[in-house]
């Protein structure tokens, strides 16, 4: 692996622990101003210092993130359909030149295995990896799940393995029963997406399970920014991912930071 690729990867997956806490705030690329991200700037500004990497589109990065910060960026570079259309009808929307100009440490796109345009999204991943290899840019592939698809180890294992076979450097997928089987079949680091908002303790339990079963971290959105205590929640997740905290210890971090007076 060359220096550029390794160096960029180390800004996403932290060498000290081999893990990452990515904050996913790209949802608007097909959902528009979704709950928690309507005023994206005010939601994410206090969270950015607590994330290892921000997963975001170029539009929101340019307009809503202060450039002077230490958190790396992984740029969402696919899109096309809105929530009203056929979601698998995605293409690459953002060039590699733009990703480099924006100082990205990685680029990410979705593949839609089992959906109407599965073949096109997988070939797009191949093309993105070909281009990314030229510039030492890591590619994160997301195993997007269509409305009718089961989120089980067989399906997510299939999609994750295909992403790795095509050349993704990191795979983002969902948690499921027997998650360790998904990890076993995928030789590149897996980060867990959080999915729909759930009670904080459950989200921490899911994070704990994923890390115990071999995940290299999380790329989580709604369970952080839709929480009643987003900063407490991201710090609780950090404790599980980077410090091996138990669910009780992490929940305590989430709860106790609610009681602290706001900084002036
Ligand atoms: C949307 C995405 C999101 O980044 C991913 O789903 C993580 O966010 P959440 O934890 O809210 O599921 O790729 O397509």
> Can you write the helix and strand succession as a string?
HEHHEHEEEHEHEHEHEHEHHH
The shape is globular
* Overall CATH class: Alpha Beta
What's the mean pLDDT score? 96
- Looking at CATH, the homologous superfamily is Aldolase class I
Largest sheet: 8 strands, parallel
Bound ions, cofactors and other small molecules, one mention each: ribulose-5-phosphate
Binned, the helix content reads 40-55%
Beta strand %: 15-25%
Radius of gyration: 17 Å
What does this structure look like?
With 264 residues, this protein is an alpha/beta fold. The protein has a single domain, classed as Alpha-Beta Barrel (TIM Barrel), CATH 3.20.20.70. It is built from 12 helices and 10 strands. The longest helix is centred in the middle third of the chain and has 18 residues, at 118-135. The model has no long low-confidence stretch (mean pLDDT 96). The structure holds ribulose-5-phosphate. Residues 24, 26-27, 55, 110, 142, 144, 193-195, 219-223 line the site of ribulose-5-phosphate.
Task: Characterize this entry briefly.
This protein is α/β, with parallel strands linked by helices.
Quick tags:
264 residues, alpha/beta, TIM Barrel, eight-stranded parallel β-sheet, two-stranded antiparallel ribbon, 43% helix, binds ribulose-5-phosphate
